Structure formats: structure tokens, C-alpha cells
Structure prediction request, 589 residues.
Amino acid sequence: MMAASPSVAGCLSASGISGRKSEEIADLIDLFSKTQYRAKEITPRVERIEKRCLELFGRDYKYSIIHNTNGDVCGHYPRQIVFLEYECTDPNKDRFETSVQITKLQDLVNRSKMARCRGRFVCPVILYNGKHVCRSSTLAGWGELYGRTGYNYIFSGGTDDTWAESEEVPEDESARNGDSQLFDKVRGSDIKLLRYLSVRYICDLMVENKKVKFGLNVTSSEKVDKAQRYADFTLLSVPYPGCEFFKEYKDRDYTAEGLVFNWNQDFVDAPLTIPACFTKNLNIDWRAYQSWDLVEQTQNYLKLLIHIINSDDESGLLVHCISGWDRTPLFVSLLRLSLWADGAIHATLEPSEILYLTIAYDWFLFGHMLPDRLSKGEEIFFFCFNFLKHIVSEKFSAVRKQRRKNSHFKDTDFTVDDLCQLKSRDRGSATSLSSDFSLITEDSAAATAAASGSSLTNEAVDVFYTAPPSSGRKAMMSSPQTVLWNRPHPLEERLPHPLTEGKSSSSSSSNQSEQGFTRTGSSPLAVPGRSEYVPERQARLEAVREVFLAAYSCTVGLKSAAPSPSGAISGLLEQFARGVGLRGTNSIV
Prediction:
């Protein structure tokens, strides 16, 4: 590993988060912020990152490699794509070991790469309870498909060997035109790959049915395939704002509370569509999705993904957006970290190690264009890891605790056992505004309010339209993509900086830890110097977040927006950064 620069090492040390592994993450983020990964342009520094990812995967899994040498299959996928076969300690490993043959999988990958935008084929990235969570881009439209097919034809000497042995030739070719034949061929291979990986559920994050550029349909999606080729899959349309929207997040000094996407834009035509079987037990009013701010929307979508992979069958899940390198890694990364915090995957990795793995593999090696996004202020990458404070609650756990049936606290973050422990100990806090009251309300008020305000569940299969909220609630439209609601600005309650642990009305995080944790046991952790009870899930996610924030602030830095009318935001950001020792050479400008 390259040693971190003296300024970065000093910055990390001042933050109280130092050591080789923290410097390793800082070095990774520093490279990532300057370079987009390309499989055919490898340096020794990138080779070390690839090797490190394989070592971290190998700690807990037996895996095989899908080869993408020099980007031959996809130019911005890892050269060595990890296919997780089974956990090293899994008693059922023999069953999983023989279920997929890597040579067959490699062949299906080679055949299906043309079916999806930019060649970003369906790729397994997480293994949970024997189920594969996969990622990809959306389906290629006729413009891209014909363009790439022609290119491959010309540069392969006049033959298209990829499709020479295809089995998707229609029975009655005279009844189909050339477009349909080509789509049958490539999408048929895509479907074969999905089935081979036992994927049944497909979550599409696009806010449009088809991506249109210059009046042409550049990409499509499974939900609007005219031939209904994907009818045997369970399709979920879960529209989520693209990377452009995260400039609004950055411009509001990294505050996601109260930031609502404008669903009335012309290009937004994909409705929220979720089968009723996934809406019954989540206690979410899906009909209100257009009124959710960015925090609530991300929380609810993550709950949905966890609910899907926890279903009783053995089917896998595919998550994708358009190109599969912004919204897709956001949810893949949150899902990986959430399951890790539960002890359900990557069981032996410490917080700094799981952080390194998800940054390096889920973001960098899968081609996220961080330098471009940073230049435009589209900080979706930063949002992902800062958002961990909003999913520390047990409500996001894939491994639910047993609760007493008649407990009045069944919808809060506390179990009866938790409350009993609290009752028998001093519940005061040196940092609380009050003692007993603040401890319970800070941790559970948001969850209780959410539960009471979201008691309706949508029993219908589809949600096609949501009437806009009453105009009295709208404050302003700051841009064509944003609606801001009349909620208290964080400056009225707390410092508006992502490093603070302040509460928000839509967050289920709590004002807890200032320290990192590396413990991986099953017992609850107590915060050093405090008497508050901290569940292990919360402690683990907070540890990951703190390491990330320190490394990010010491390398990329947090850029405050233009001065606010009060002139207070930039000053507070600067003051806070200096106070916690995170003021680096390019920390906050």
C-alpha cells in the first residue's frame, strides 16, 4: 500500500481515526477522486486495490472468477469479477458449490453483454442466504444495440461469433422484422443469465420508462419490453432521482432532510409499481412516495430491498438504474453495509475493511465516475456513506429480534429487553438536554412518528399516480428538480454539517457515538465515557461512517455552498471542521 501523504496522515491522526487501515482508505478515496477505473488502463496502484478486494472477499467466501481481462466483456467492470459460491462456514456449502458452473456462467456472460446499456451485464455482487444480489445497467435500446453490433461486426472480420450459436432464433422468422429478431436474440441471452443465477426479482430505479436523448430512445427497460419477454420475472419500478439531484443535496450543505424530488418534470414517466406481496408487512404508505424527502425515500427503498431478499423463496434480486454506476452502487453499497452490520455477510471484516471493500469494489472497480460527479457537485457517493446514520435502527435489520407479542413498543427501535436494561441502569447522558426523557425520545420518537403516520399499506399491485400534496406545505421550488418543504432548517436545531450526529425528523439515528468500533461480537456495545445503551448494529455502522468521513474530509473535502442569506452556514462548517480536527489542506472550501 502506498503511504498516505503527511498532510492526510496528520489529518487522520488529529481526527482520532488513524492507523494503516484508515490511511489505506484515504489513499483509495484520493485515487478514486482523480481517476475513473478502466479495465484496460491498469496501474500498480489499481492492481493493489484489485488484490486487496480479492483478499477481503476470500476472508469469508469461497469464490470463483468471471474473467474480464482488459475489459473484453465490459470496459468498466472489474478485470476479475468475483462470483461468491458459498460462505466458508456454511453447512450447506456443498449444495451451493455445485449449483453454478463457472464455465457456463462465463459463457452466458459473454453472450448476454450486448443486451444491456454500455455492456454492463447482470453481475452477482452479494451472496445472502444462498441468494445472489446482482447489479447491471438497464436494457439497451435499438440505437445503442445496432451501433454496437455494427461496430463488433466490422472489427471482428465480418462475423459476429458472439451470436453464431444462439438458440433464440424465432420459429417463424418471416413474421418478425429485423428489430424483433435482434432483440429476441440478445434479450433471450440476458434472460438465460438471469435464470441461471436464480434471479426472479428486478428492481428498476429509473424515473423514466425509456431514456431519450436527441429525440431517440437510447435505452429501454424490462417494464416496457413490448414482447413481454420478462413477464416471468417480478418487476418492481421504484423510481429514484439520478445523480444530478444530488447537487441539490450538496448545495444545501449536505442536508437531505426536506429535500424532495420534483416528480412533475416532463421526462419523469415511470410510476412506482410494487407487487402487493411486498407492501403488506412494511408499514409504509407507498401512495405518498412523491411527498417523501430524500431521507425517507432512501430508507423506504432500502427496507423494500431487505424485505425482498428475506422472502421465503430462494430467488435472487437484480438492482439497476440506467447505466448502473450511480444509483445502483448506492443501494448495493447500503445493502452490503446493512447486512454486514447485522452479521449476516462478511462476518469477519472489521468496519474499516468492509468500508474499503464496498468503496473499492462496488464503486471504484464498477466504474463510478467520481471525478466527473465531484466536478459537477453531484455528491451521490458521499451521500451513501453519510446516510448510514439514518439506517442504524433495528427497523432496517434483516435479522429481527424476537419481541413480546403484547408489547406496546413493537414499532419502535427498542425491544422489551432493551427497556428492562435501561430501567435498571442510569439512563442519563452527559450530552443530553435531559436524562430519561431525552434518551428514549431521541432514539424512538422518529420511528414512532413514522409508524403512526405511515400506518396505511397499499394493498393494490400498482401505484400509478399520487396527487401532489396541498400547496400549503410547499415552501418553494429551488430548481426544476427540487421541492423544499416547510420544515425547520437544521441551522435552527443543530450544526448543518454531515459529521454531526444531530437528529432529524425523518431519521432513525441517534445522538450516540463519537468513536469508532471494531468489535464483531453479538453482545451490545456501550459507548466509552457514556452510560447510554448502543445496539451493536448502530455501533458498527457509526464506526464505518466515522472512518469514511475522516478519510473523505482529509482527501476530497466537503465543499460548502454559496453563502446563505444569514451568512452562517459556511462559518459553522469551518468552525466545526476545525473543532474536530478535520481541517485538512483541502478539507472545506
Notes: The first helix runs from residue 6 to 14. Confidence is low (pLDDT under 50) at residues 149-176, 402-527, 564-589.
